[in-house]
Automatic annotation (TrEMBL):
PANTHER family: OS07G0599000 PROTEIN. This is Pentatricopeptide repeat-containing protein-mitochondrial domain-containing protein. The lineage of its organism: Eukaryota, Viridiplantae, Streptophyta, Embryophyta, Tracheophyta. Keywords: Repeat. PPR repeats lie at residues 493-527, 528-562. It comes from Anisodus acutangulus. InterPro entries: At1g26460-like, PPR_rpt, TPR-like_helical_dom_sf, TPR_mt. Residues 337-483 form the Pentatricopeptide repeat-containing protein-mitochondrial domain. The keyword Transport does not apply.
Length: 617
């Protein structure tokens, strides 16, 4: 017996000879007796048929011949039996290491069925010691993967994973991930989501004792993706937060789905916390949504006045711009300027200086010094600084604005620097704390005018004049107006005179306001629509609708159209003063300019006033 055992390897090495087949249908060509091989006729082997000739042995390509079953030399059942026999023979010659290497080779060619068969033969075979082969966890995972690729569902894989205990194995992270992947790939996420969550929680609990079973990035991605597919947003976001706190990296697909779900379900604050969590980790701070999604995030954030999310969207824009500039040839990306103007407005409303500076930097980077920002961008920046109380920065932005558009000859350019409209937020900010703020601003402007180079601005001083008028301080208003020419060496413009008229008219000094008007008319300064509106208000405060109507007539003669609000104020005063003549003139003006004053008839208004007067008497 010892001799036989020792001779077994020798016998295996010798049995490499091929035996003569006994299959009766292997044909042999008959030859004539007595004909020596040397004198036999020499025949040339013909070329294979042309694949494009439509030969039935080929199916569209000569590399994939299709042999009809009726003409097969070897029956198909025999081929199958030969393949299984070959796999069974291989299973008897491999150890764990050799089987792992073979599986690694077969995975590249996707020979899943053969992997499954070989593993099943192998675990029923004996090793060198005469014991049944025992797989390890990694080898068993190859078996699970083969079943997964062959279409096994999650329940089948769970059953196979339970068999690992029979071999003294504990399912590791890769084992569970294969099961989770089967759940994720199923067409019914709702039917698997509970099992997936339970499996993940089991991995977390088991991992406390067996570290190799702890969930990894793929585990969280699969469960989170399954929760998003099942539209369970809250649960998905909970596990996203858990993954970030555990230091795992989110996949780009999960991150984009998280952003999309939060945006469309109005979970903006949660999205801000997730983005901040990604920024704190090196492995997640490079996550970047698509460009169109960044634009949508910014739009939604600005509509909701969510300054933090808006700032995060600006950070995404910067990353895209930098990425475009780094490629060759460079791709120059620009953010819509209207979107950035809205961001500046949100910064002013929410008092967020970080968003203000970020929006302006993105704007400059988008324009790439090809042109100056639009006037709306400058005005939004001035408004934001004024709202934040950063008056020095606001006047610096005003200086840039004047350099860009101060010399414009367009008709609309005059209105850009009006303290009553465009620059009104700055004028209001100048008197926020009364005369203390006004004096501080005036001294700052005075120092800037003495700097090198000097920075002098009539528009800035006009804001100070209007600020003085807002706090009913006519003395400071008049002194500031006089300082435009005496201290700063500048010439007052129409906005300067309008601010002074407003200051006098607000205190009921109608005559002084009229003298200001007559003064600049003598100087050749052309009044604008705001001038006539302020004069009308000054006359109405003194209860003189006829004088107000005369101002409107001058306004119409100067090719300006009275506003609906102006005529309403005059009619209201005419009604109270029972000035029917002036009221008729208002009626003529409404018909001339096609202004509809409302559903209430003016005669009814007069009747109600007369009735109330008699009743009061």
């Amino acid at each position: 017996m010892t001799i036989l055992i020792r001779s077994r390897p020798l016998i295996r090495t010798i049995t490499t000879y091929k035996s003569i087949t006994t299959v009766p249908f292997l044909s042999q060509e008959p030859q004539l007796a007595g004909t020596p091989p040397e004198t036999a006729a020499i025949t040339t082997t013909p070329l294979p048929p042309n694949p494009s000739s439509g030969n039935p042995l080929y199916n569209e390509h000569w590399r994939s011949p299709v042999v009809p079953s009726s003409s097969s030399i070897v029956p198909l059942p025999f081929l199958r039996q030969s393949s299984l026999s070959r796999i069974e023979e291989i299973s008897q010659t491999l150890d764990v290491h050799g089987l792992m290497n073979l599986f690694a080779d077969w995975m590249t060619t996707q020979r899943w069925e053969e992997m499954k068969q070989l593993f099943e033969f192998w675990i029923r075979s004996l090793d060198r010691n005469g014991k049944l082969n025992k797989p390890d966890a990694n080898l068993f995972n190859h078996y699970l993967r083969a079943n997964l690729m062959m279409g096994a569902n999650a329940d089948d894989l769970l059953g196979l994973a339970c068999q690992m205990e029979d071999y003294g194995l504990v399912a590791n992270t890769a084992s569970h991930n294969l099961i989770l992947k089967a759940m994720f790939q199923s067409g019914e996420p709702l039917s698997w989501v509970d099992k997936a969550v339970k499996l993940l929680e089991r991995m977390i609990q088991t991992g406390k004792e067996y570290k190799e079973s702890l969930p990894d990035e793929e585990s969280y991605d699969l469960v989170i993706g399954l929760l998003f597919k099942a539209d369970l947003i809250d649960d998905a976001l909970k596990y996203v937060d858990s993954a970030l706190k555990s230091g795992y990296k989110l996949s780009m697909n999960v991150f984009n789905e998280c952003v999309r779900s939060c945006v469309f379900n109005n979970r903006l604050d949660i999205l801000v916390s997730i983005i901040d969590g990604c920024k704190k980790t090196d492995q997640n701070k490079g996550l970047l949504p698509p460009w169109n999604m960044c634009t949508h995030i910014a739009d939604v954030a600005l509509q909701a006045d969510n300054s933090e999310l808006a700032f995060s969207s600006l950070g995404f824009f910067v990353k895209w711009i930098v990425r475009g500039e780094s490629v060759r040839p460079p791709v120059l990306l620009t953010v819509d300027e209207g979107l950035l103007v809205a961001a500046l407005g949100t910064a002013g409303r929410t008092y967020n200086a970080k968003l203000l500076n970020g929006a302006w930097e993105v704007l400059k980077r988008s324009l790439q010094q090809t042109r100056a920002p639009n006037p709306e961008s400058f005005l939004a920046k001035i408004y934001a600084h004024a709202s934040l109380g950063q008056l020095q920065n606001a006047f610096a932005a005003l200086h840039e604005f004047e350099k860009a558009y101060g010399s414009s000859k367009e008709e609309s350019a005059e209105e850009l620097f009006s303290p009553f409209t465009s620059l009104n937020p700055l004028a209001v900010a100048c008197c926020r704390n009364g005369f203390v703020t006004l004096d501080s601003v005036y001294y700052q402007l005075e120092n800037l005018s003495r700097a090198d180079p000097p920075n002098k601005s009539v528009a800035a001083l006009n804001c100070v004049i209007l600020g003085c008028a807002n706090i009913w301080d006519i003395d400071r208003a008049y002194q500031t107006f006089a300082a435009i020419e005496s201290s700063f060496g500048l010439t007052p413009d129409i906005h300067s005179y309008n601010a002074l008229i407003y200051a006098f008219g607000k205190l009921g000094k109608r005559d002084e306001a009229t003298k200001v008007y007559e003064h600049f008319m003598d100087l050749g300064v052309k009044p604008n629509e705001m001038t006539y509106s302020l004069l009308v208000d000054a006359h109405l405060i003194k209860r003189e609708p006829k004088a107000a109507i005369s101002v409107v007539d001058e306004m119409v003669h100067a090719q300006y159209k009275p506003s609906k609000e102006m005529l309403k104020k005059i009619r209201r005063r005419c009604t109270r003063e029972m000035d029917y003549e002036s009221d008729d003139r208002v009626e003529e003006l409404t018909k001339k300019f096609y202004i509809r004053m409302g559903i209430e008839n003016r005669r009814n208004m007069l009747f109600n006033v007369e009735y109330n007067t008699e009743y009061a008497g």
